[in-house]
Amino acid sequence: MKLPRRQFLHLGAGAAALPSLARFTWAQTYPTRPVRLIVTVVAGGSPDIIARLISQWLSERLGQPFVVENRSGAAGNIATEFVVRAPPDGYTLMLAISANAINASLYPNLGFNFMRDIAPVASISTIPLVMEVNPSVPAHTVPEFIAYAKANPGKINMASGGTGSPLHVAGELFKMMAGVDMIHVPYRSEALALPDLISGQAQVLFGVMPASLGYIRAGTLNALAVTSAKRQKVLPDVPALSEFLPGFEANGWYGVGVPKATPVEIVGRLNREINAGLADPQMRRRLDELGCAVFAGSPADFGKFIAAETVKWAKVIRAANIKAD
Length: 325
Prior knowledge:
- By secondary structure, this protein is α/β, with parallel strands linked by helices.
- 46% of the residues lie in helices and 19% in strands.
- It has 12 helices and 10 strands.
- Strands 1, 2, 3, 4, 5, 6, 7, 8, 9 and 10 form a 10-stranded mixed beta sheet that branches.
- Helix 2 links the parallel strand 1 (35-39) and strand 2.
- Helix 2 packs across helix 10 (264-279).
């Protein structure tokens, strides 16, 4: 039977729409089973805290457990590659962090390309670091510290959470912009670096805000500046480094990513639900308490941000000649 041309085209258009309709329906029913949120660090750290906040929100909103799974090691590359190789079905997510942008140039022989192989879903928050010193350091302001460092080249120990970590590259950016010479002392984690900073074996650390606030408020450590572009509500009397070094900014950040070929309908649904969480007053209050600034946006916005961060830290890594351990 020969169909009229108009009817034939109508049927053809309907057939072409079926895959899109199926994907839309799939996204509407997603998830139908538990979802894993892979975290690149051990339990208890700042990324883990953020992941558990988001996973609890998504569990309540979407009616299935979002289970945090910690896969630490190799500066987060083990966990990242695990997600890259996972089925792109929306059931394996990762907490993307600032280290992912740094690792892209720090590790030239990775078996994956973060920007190519991980699809951005949603940014969650930015988190400034705190330039903090042991109270024995005779400096109470950034200009005093720079003057002290220039008078004592190569005698100040700058602790970090590991070579190439966000704490390290922030310190290297400071060294370059301030024109000072400090000795980098890498630790396996920030948690291991803090005791030596408190005891005076190290003199300065660019520490993550949530891990540092208690020590600063107790007077155990002195905060000289925050690394965000502006001052932070949780430390209103602590200046931003940019007030002394114009243009300085070094924030940690958190977001969610998925394997590259994950359906855009699922990416869109996750983005909407995460942004709804970031608009929730209780969630915002909890992030404020942790020293985190809400950072909401579209998947495309998050992708552009990651690209800019990757380029920025590649320049620092090359200039400071940082090599992975």
